[in-house]
Amino acid sequence: MNSDKLFGLSTTAYRQGKIKEAYDILINNRDAYNKDTTLYYYSFTLACKLKKVKDAMHFLNEAVITLGMWYNTDFLDSDTNLDIIRDLDDYKYIYKVCKQRQIDLRFSGEKKIDIYVPETSTNKLFLMLPGNFQSLNEVKKSFNQDSIKDYIIAIPQSREFHSYLKCLWGDIKFGLKVVLEHYNEVVKEYDINKNEVILSSFAAGGNVIFKALVENALPVSKVIFFAPGISNLESFEPQIKALKNRNIKILIVCGENDSHYLPFSNHFDRLLTKYDVNHKYLILNDLGHSFPINTEEIIKQAIMYFDSSN
Fold first, then answer.
1. Does residue 5 come out as left (phi exceeding 0), alpha (psi in the -120 to 50 range) or beta?
2. pLDDT tens digit sequence for 174-228
3. 113 φ, ψ to 5°?
4. Strands, DSSP E only, in 79-195?
5. Are 217 and 201 in contact (CB under 8 A)?
6. Strands, DSSP E only, in the chain?
7. Is residue 110 within 8 Å of 81, Cβ to Cβ?
8. Helix (H) or strand (E) holding 232
9. Which residues pair with 29 in a beta bridge?
């Protein structure tokens, strides 16, 4: 059994109120853990809920001390399930270890980008930023050669860690620096036509793309925001207003059931409309906080919009 299936089985039982069953599913399939921070996390939190203090500390110790993983201490602080072990000396020691690794390793991510080059020659680039905690493989399931035709597809990974191997775009200035480095290298290596670049992002990745736009840091005119979670938009109104005169086209895509990100998307749409910035807004039926099911169709619509004279 792989880790994804194991996690799915356990969380299904948990949602049904079967906490002990959810825990037993994990414990009986330890061979699938393989340094998976999520599985270890649910093991010690479920143990806490079941008041299995010794077991909880065993899994936490194994994850952090034996295997060298670490958890974001803000995340640990917010989890009330852990209240039962917070006063233990062993927990306090492990917490300090996590805190130090959080400081030392935050910006230690390796340079990583996935690039697909089609067999037919092209000078077009589709650059896609994942959301927080998304792996490149997860993004590639939706944004690949089957859904995006005749484009070189580049998916860079953030180099900032929230916790062990969990990347995010927390420091937007640092994130933009990472994206600019990848963009410049890809454009040079593949002789990309800068007028044929589509810049795209999902969720938190949109904060980096937005910064690139308002600071005119990337010479792109075609941008797709999937479920953007851009905060403090009002403070950027002068820069948003200036986008009108820069020949930029923006497509916003969000699911109607995306309860957290839909309000952000609506707000972004209102401000772009207010300042007459060329954009299009798609709200997808029956979609929550995830990539569109019909990614190929959305990309086709986006390209038609970008290439139109309107």
1. alpha
2. 999 999 999 999 999 999 999 999 999 999 999 999 999 999 999 899 999 999 9
3. -150, 140
4. 113-116, 125-129, 152-156, 161-163, 166-167
5. no
6. 113-116, 125-129, 152-156, 161-163, 166-167, 197-202, 222-226, 249-255, 279-284
7. no
8. none
9. none
